[in-house]
Specification:
Blueprint lengths: L16 H15 L6 H8 L3 H8 L2 H19 L11 H17 L6 H8 L4 H23 L6 H24 L3 H16 L3
Length: about 200
């Protein structure tokens, strides 16, 4: 989903949708969906409640659009590493190392979608988006592992699940009690496991 949002006819929109979505990503990522109020969104985005609802329809619709925006960024900055130079075990190792640096840079935030998975899993729409996100990571990992000629499809799938579990664990750890050293140690252990498959 891009940044073109269908809106009701009326006055031209007085704000940039892409900029608003970037602000919404940061706010939902920082505070969480439930804790983020419409007033918080108004202040952070510098947009009135009526303008927000005119553009997006509801707080949840804004969240889902923000998830799309976030996923575009993650695909560009992280998931693309898994397909660099044809994938393979080395690409997975580079992905994990980059993920560790990304987590440390973003400090206590963890991952927006994983945070939502943990805190708002009773909402079917958010739950579906979290499940789709896990599938995206799983498929990207599986593609990278399967690029190794000597790796069977069953081995690729098993390794993908192991790395996915580690990735989710990294995000939850970073969100719950951020300690750069702990994150770095977990990344090193996960990279060591991946290296053993070379």
């Amino acid at each position: 989903m891009g940044t073109e949002i269908t809106r009701r006819p009326g006055r031209p929109r007085g704000f940039d949708v892409a900029t608003a979505l970037d602000g919404a990503v940061d706010l939902f990522w920082e505070l969480g969906y439930e804790a983020t109020t419409t007033r918080d969104l108004e202040r952070r985005l510098n947009v009135s409640q009526s303008s927000l609802y005119n553009a997006f329809g509801s707080k949840k619709a804004l969240l889902l659009a923000a998830i799309d925006r976030y996923e575009e960024r993650i695909r560009r900055e992280l998931f693309s590493i898994l397909t660099d130079d044809g994938g393979g075990v080395d690409a997975v190792g580079r992905f994990i190392a980059a993920l560790g640096r990304w987590i440390v840079t973003n400090e206590h935030r963890g991952c927006l979608v994983v945070n939502l998975m943990a805190s708002a899993s009773d909402d079917p729409d958010i739950g579906a988006r979290a499940a789709a996100y896990r599938s995206t990571i799983r498929e990207a990992l599986n593609t990278a592992f399967a690029a190794e000629a000597r790796v069977t499809s069953a081995e690729a799938a098993q390794r993908s699940e192991a790395v996915l579990a580690g990735v989710l664990g990294l995000h939850v750890t970073a969100r719950s009690s951020f300690d750069p050293t702990e994150v770095e140690n977990m990344v090193a252990a996960l990279c060591h496991q991946v290296d053993s498959w070379s």
